[in-house]
Amino acid sequence: MVEWRIAEVPVSYPEAVTEMEARVAAIRAGTAAELVWLLEHPPLYTAGTSAQPEDLLEPARFPVYPSGRGGQFTYHGPGQRVAYVMLDLARRGPDVRCFVRTLETWLIRTLASFNIKGETREGRVGIWVDRGPYGGLPGQEDKIAALGVRVRRWVTFHGIALNVEPDLSHFAGIVPCGIREHGVTSMHALGHLVSMPEVDAALMGCWTDVFGDL
């Protein structure tokens, strides 16, 4: 069974990476269970393996950390629920694309439990919200959740970041995920004033239906 861990205080990015590295090795060795780690970070930017230097607009604003996950620049900070997902795909099915699609489905179902319609878009990573029902312009779409994963010997790490109530102005220091023509939003910005424990409960509640009970 998957172990769940919820950090009560913000976790530094280097500490989180060290913890993930150790857990991934233990899962691969068969000495630890799979883990979903729910946490927040202090304000920071991470650069994925496809990050372009010109997309870091304000390099002095927050610490910037290189990351081994896929993707480009991402912001993490208080009010954003990060879920680091460490699963054994050798046991579950060695298909990385399927894993990413399952993460997307997990986010979409979690958002749906709060009556928010999250959607995927061809060619754009992450989960998107049509701003039309929220007073936006026709065709306006904002990202509400980001994904970035890494797989080592069929064990996954890194994961997803869902914007619950972060300071959205902090995203201005980067081009989020390299996409300039669309913005970012949060559950609170859409008028859904949910708490982090409520979001955690929804993430855990939707897990088994999406990932199964292995």
What does this structure look like?
This protein has 214 residues and is of the alpha/beta class. It contains 4 helices and 11 strands; from the N terminus they run E-H-E-E-E-E-E-H-H-E-E-E-E-E-H. The protein has helices at residues 13-29, 89-92, 96-112, 196-211, and strands spanning 3-6, 35-39, 44-47, 64-66, 73-76, 80-86, 119-121, 124-130, 141-152, 155-163, 183-184. Strands 1, 2, 6, 7, 8, 9, 10 and 11 form an 8-stranded mixed sheet that branches. Strands 4-3-5 form a 3-stranded mixed sheet, with no helix packed on it. Helix 3 (96-112) packs across helix 4 (196-211). The N and C termini lie close together (6 Å).
Topology:
Elements: E1 3-6, H1 13-29, E2 35-39, E3 44-47, E4 64-66, E5 73-76, E6 80-86, H2 89-92, H3 96-112, E7 119-121, E8 124-130, E9 141-152, E10 155-163, E11 183-184, H4 196-211
Parallel strand pairs: 1-2, 3-4, 9-11
Antiparallel strand pairs: 2-6, 3-5, 6-10, 7-8, 8-9, 9-10
Helix pairs in contact: 3-4
Q: Any descriptors?
A:
single chain; 214 residues; alpha/beta; eight-stranded mixed beta sheet; three-stranded mixed beta sheet; 4 helices; 11 strands; 25% helix
